[in-house]
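Action item from last meeting closed. Structure (397 res):
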């Protein structure tokens, strides 16, 4: 959990506003502000109880995912397309905290996980946590991880004598949830536990490598960590933690947790549905009452639309967006559309004066095409000089 004293902010509310500003630059909008589609689903208490009664929750964070999945599906139908949303959630109990959450709903591409990692890192950097690392695990899918679950059960039964009597009955019906509890308690045997990513199918391995290639292209340091686990009823494929160095001790501690919760979202949607999230917990400080939904930050209307084509360009696109964010240059994108035609149609519909384009050739040469829509004039600019070029030609203030 982030401590306010370790940041430049004096209150939780001001920190949240900074996080919102960064998230909205990348296209996220407040979940509660999304208008409801007439074709969205409606859930009765019976529907919710039926789904949740068949879910084994392994982590504290998982229960709240149920409410978010229902919220998404009650606003937009699964066929709506990709939705990016932020949400501020306050937890209760003996140690209440504020969680800033980012959700991407409606896509199964690893670009979603990559974007969440990039945006979370940007938020953490903006609040003073510069030295970060990313730890990743891949648990496959419910259908493919049977051998992993079986071997976890065998492993736990071998160590029954060292496991708390209160936890022992859980071994038979929920071995993965039991292992999660042991990991959180720091049980000495967990270092020898089975690793989920060793049981992946070839298709799942290719998906994992695709994600790792995205991170390598963006020069984001990562490590594989088999201890990042969760319920198979909630998660599929990617789980990750982002850790940051403590300002005083220098020790890296978890400050964000995320993953792909397709399994839970699909239960509510009653069809295969992509959903991925990240949560950044923060202490509550700066007043008796902290708003659970801070006022959305007003972002200037962008003059630029970013478009890309090709796998290599997609991998580098988030780096371009981050450079523009740091320079304070607003931009709109449709990274979820692989086809250039769909992206350009969006740009024409919204009447952008300038379009930035990265194709396969540009990705290999690390350049960006700057096109002025009014006269269709364009110039190819090195990516490292893009901001200076836009300012020099007075395309931005």
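Sequence:
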């Amino acid at each position: 959990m982030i401590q306010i004293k370790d940041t430049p902010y004096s209150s939780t509310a001001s920190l949240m506003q900074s996080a919102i500003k960064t998230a909205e630059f990348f296209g996220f909008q407040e979940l509660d502000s999304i208008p409801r589609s007439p074709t969205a689903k409606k859930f009765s208490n019976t529907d919710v109880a039926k789904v949740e009664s068949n879910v084994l929750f392994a982590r504290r964070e998982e229960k709240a995912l149920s409410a978010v999945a229902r919220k998404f599906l009650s606003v937009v139908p699964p066929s709506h397309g990709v939705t990016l949303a932020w949400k501020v959630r306050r937890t209760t109990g003996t140690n209440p905290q504020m969680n800033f959450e980012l959700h991407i709903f409606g896509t199964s591409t690893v670009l979603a996980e990559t974007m969440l990692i990039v945006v979370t890192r940007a938020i953490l950097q903006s609040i003073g946590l510069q030295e970060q690392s990313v730890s990743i695990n891949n648990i496959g899918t419910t259908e493919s991880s049977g051998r992993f679950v079986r071997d976890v059960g065998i492993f736990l039964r071998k160590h029954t004598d060292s496991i708390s009597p209160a936890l022992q009955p859980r071994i038979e019906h929920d071995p993965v949830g039991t292992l999660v509890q042991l990991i959180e308690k720091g049980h000495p045997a967990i270092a020898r536990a089975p690793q989920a990513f060793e049981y992946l199918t070839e298709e799942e391995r290719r998906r994992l490598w695709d994600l790792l290639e995205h991170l390598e292209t963006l020069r984001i340091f990562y490590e594989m960590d088999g201890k990042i686990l969760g319920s198979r009823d909630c998660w599929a494929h990617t789980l990750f933690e982002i850790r940051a160095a403590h300002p005083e001790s220098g020790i890296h501690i978890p400050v964000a947790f995320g993953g792909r919760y397709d399994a839970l979202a699909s239960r509510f949607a009653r069809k295969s549905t992509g959903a991925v999230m990240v949560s950044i917990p923060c202490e509550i400080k700066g007043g008796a009452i902290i708003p659970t939904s801070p006022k959305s930050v007003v972002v200037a209307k962008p003059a630029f639309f970013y478009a890309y084509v090709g796998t290599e360009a997609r991998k580098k696109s988030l780096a371009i967006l981050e450079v523009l964010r740091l320079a304070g240059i607003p931009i709109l994108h449709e990274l979820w559309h692989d086809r250039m035609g769909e992206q350009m149609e969006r740009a024409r519909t919204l009447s952008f004066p300038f379009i930035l384009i990265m194709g396969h050739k540009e990705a290999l040469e690390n350049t960006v095409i700057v096109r002025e829509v009014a006269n269709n004039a364009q110039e190819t600019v090195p990516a490292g000089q893009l901001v200076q070029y836009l300012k020099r030609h007075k395309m931005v203030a």
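Note appended to the action item: The chain has a mean pLDDT of 88.
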